[in-house]
Amino acid sequence: MELRVIKTDEQHRRYLEEARRLAKGDPAPESDDGARLELLAKLIDDYERERFKFRKPDPIEAILFRMEEQGLRQADIAAIVGGKNRASEILSRKRPLTLSMVRALHEKLGIPSELLIREPAAEYRVRTRAGKRTR
């Protein structure tokens, strides 16, 4: 079978089966089977990267995920961001994270800072207009 760019789930399934079959034979990289397996792996990887894209979490989703993962409560976050009220406002998307909060959350919870500095989800955006905050 001639290899082409994968466009359907069925084609993806067939290529996976063939790649598994070839891999079981452990072909030498310079052999025809080795070259075919390498090409199949590239085509499969390209298809899966495009087909199964995952959206990165927004800052609040990242915090909530880490809280669940580590069994933390809002009080634990309060100790990091400066108080219960502030933690509540952040987790309910009423207050944006400051740079010092981003640093503290990154250092204490290990949340990647690039996730914490991302634009929040559409339901919460702080904009200033004539000195007033709007949601």
Features:
single chain, 135 residues, mainly alpha, 2 domains, two-stranded antiparallel sheet, 7 helices
How is this structure best summarized?
By secondary structure, this protein is mainly alpha-helical.
Per-chain topology:
Elements: H1 9-24, H2 32-51, H3 59-70, H4 74-81, H5 84-91, H6 99-109, H7 113-116, E1 127-129, E2 132-134
Antiparallel strand pairs: 1-2
Helix pairs in contact: 1-2, 4-5
Structure characterization notes:
- 10% of the residues are buried.
- The chain is elongated.
- A two-stranded antiparallel ribbon has the order 1-2.
- The chain is mainly α.
- Helices cover 59% and strands 4% of the residues.
- A hairpin with a 2-residue loop joins strand 1 (127-129) and strand 2 (132-134).
- It starts with 8 loop residues before the first helix and ends with a strand.
- The chain contains 7 helices and 2 strands, in the order H-H-H-H-H-H-H-E-E.
Task: Summarize the main sheet.
Answer: 2 strands, antiparallel
Q: Given the helix and strand composition, which structural class is it?
A: mainly alpha
The CATH homologous superfamily of the largest domain corresponds to lambda repressor-like DNA-binding domains
Low-confidence stretches: 124-129
How widely separated are the two ends? 56 Å
CATH class of the largest domain: Mainly Alpha
The percent of residues in helical segments reads 55-70%
Number of helical segments?
7
Number of domains: 2
Percentage beta strand: under 5%
Spatial arrangement of strands, main beta sheet: 1-2
User: In sequence order, what are the helices and strands, one letter per element?
Assistant: HHHHHHHEE
User: Would you give the CATH topology of the largest domain?
Assistant: 434 Repressor (Amino-terminal Domain)
Mean pLDDT across residues: 89
- Which outline best applies? elongated
